[in-house]
Amino acid sequence: MYSSEPIILKRDCHAIMIPSGTPHLFAAGTEVTITQSLGGTYTVIGDGVMARIGEHDADALGIEKQATTNVTKGSTGPVNEPQLWEAMKNCYDPEIPVNVVDLGLIYDCKVTPLEEGGNKVDVKMTLTAPGCGMGGVIAGDVEQRLFGVPGVTDVHVEVVWDPIWNQSMMSDAARLQLGLM
Questions:
Q1: Which residues, at least 6 apart from 168, have a Cβ–Cβ distance to it below 8 Å?
Q2: Mean pLDDT of 103-130
Q3: What is the structure's pLDDT at 113?
Q4: Is 84 helix (H, G, I), strand (E, B) or coil?
Q5: Both 168 and 108 in a single domain?
Q6: Nearest 5 degrees, angle CA 152-CA 155-CA 158?
Q7: By C-alpha distance, which of 127, 113, 47 is closest to 76?
Q8: Residue 131: band (very low, low, confident or very high) from pLDDT cuts 50, 70, 90
Q9: What integer pLDDT is reported at residue 71 of this predicted model?
Q10: HEC string of 111-171?
Q11: Burial 53-88 (b: 16+ CB within 10 A, else e)
Q12: Are both 143 and 88 inside the same structural domain?
């Protein structure tokens, strides 16, 4: 979703400034424009800043919150590994309209069955730039999505810098979407 029409926020709304990753509070009545809407989050421009509004605050934009499938932490059973990758495809860099998997930011995803039941998922991921202040936010999105996969009881997402990300790590679909092919 992209809106060239300004939207007036219906209530106070917490956001995260891009690219610094610092918190920002938009007051009710603030005029914003949506520049990107992917994975349930909204990149907006308003108050002289670019910021990311999370899906839990969609109603402030006048957008009905999406129904989410929440699996409670502690669900047991085997993990469907393709579901992990699909879950991570719902995570986006707020400045780039391509998911983190197709961007090539996910380096590794391992599932370890736990003795007490359930499964731990360890992810190694990177960012497009080392100074990105949104790294913790993006890693948090990955973690949150993975907890929604049945059988996942523990998640650890580590941001790594080796190897350094470059455009050759993107999928062909990502390069095509970004006009690089």
A1: none
A2: 95
A3: 95
A4: helix
A5: yes
A6: 150
A7: 113
A8: confident
A9: 46
A10: EEECCCCCEEEEEEECCCCCCCCCHHHHHHHHHHHHHCCCCEEEEEEEECCCCCCCHHHCC
A11: bbbebbebbebeeeeeeeeeeebeeebeeeebeebb
A12: yes
State the pLDDT at residue 78. Answer: 87
Beta bridge partners of 110: 122
98 vs 157: CA distance, rounded Å: 19
Domain that holds residue 52: 7-61
Average pLDDT in the 148-162 region? Answer: 96
CATH number of the domain bearing residue 47: 2.30.30
In this predicted model, what pLDDT tens digit does every residue of 30-69 receive, in sequence order?
999 999 999 999 999 999 999 999 999 999 999 987 655 4
Is the pLDDT score of 98 beyond 60? yes
Residue 107 lies in a domain: yes
CB atoms near residue 163 (< 10 Å): 9
